Amino acid sequence: MRVFVLSILLGMIVVIGCKKATPPTAESLASRRPPSPYETGAPPEILIADTGDVNANLEQLSLALRKYIAGSHRLPKDFEDFLAKSGVQPPPPPMGKKYVIQGQVIALVKQ
Predict the structure, then answer these.
(1) Which domain holds residue 11?
(2) Spatial separation of the C-alpha atoms in residues 29 and 33, rounded to whole Å
(3) CA–CA gap between residue 41 and residue 2 (Å, rounded)
(4) I need a surface site. Which of 37, 46, 89, 99 has the fewest CB within 10 A?
(5) What digits encode the pLDDT tens for the residues 73-108?
């Protein structure tokens, strides 16, 4: 008899405790996370220090590009668009070269 009563109580708890869960809305999810700096309209100022090593500079710029893409969910049109929207301040390119975006990395090409 005791087992019967306990099984009925357990069944009632399960029935009462099981409520239909509603999935969260896009608005409620958006309110839980802080906005990306790229979504607020004012890009952060990111200064890429000139290390004197061209490859290290390119790595830092490529990292900044990937962070921009992840934060804004957009690919920039070109390097100038990336600079304007990301707030990145790159070191000057070597003489006779310019920065370009190739895929999701920054590269140097002849001017």
Answers:
(1) 2-110
(2) 7
(3) 66
(4) 89
(5) 889 999 999 999 988 999 999 999 999 999 889 999
The pTM for the full model equals: 0.62
- Closest by CA position to 61, among listed 76, 81, 82: 82
Q: Are 66 and 18 in contact (CB under 8 A)?
A: no
Give the pair of three-digit tokens for residue 5: 């009563």
Burial code (b: 16+ CB inside 10 Å, e: under 16) for 22-57 equals eeeeeeeeeeeeeeebbeeeebeebebeeeeeeeeb
Give the chain's domain count: 1
d(CA 85, CA 72): 10
Region of 13 please: left (phi>0), alpha (psi -120 to 50) or beta: alpha
**Of the candidates 95, 101, 66, 58, the residue with the CA atom closest to the CA atom of residue 80:** 101
> How far are the Cα atoms of 1, 8, 20, 43 from residue 11, in angstroms, in the given order?
15, 5, 17, 56
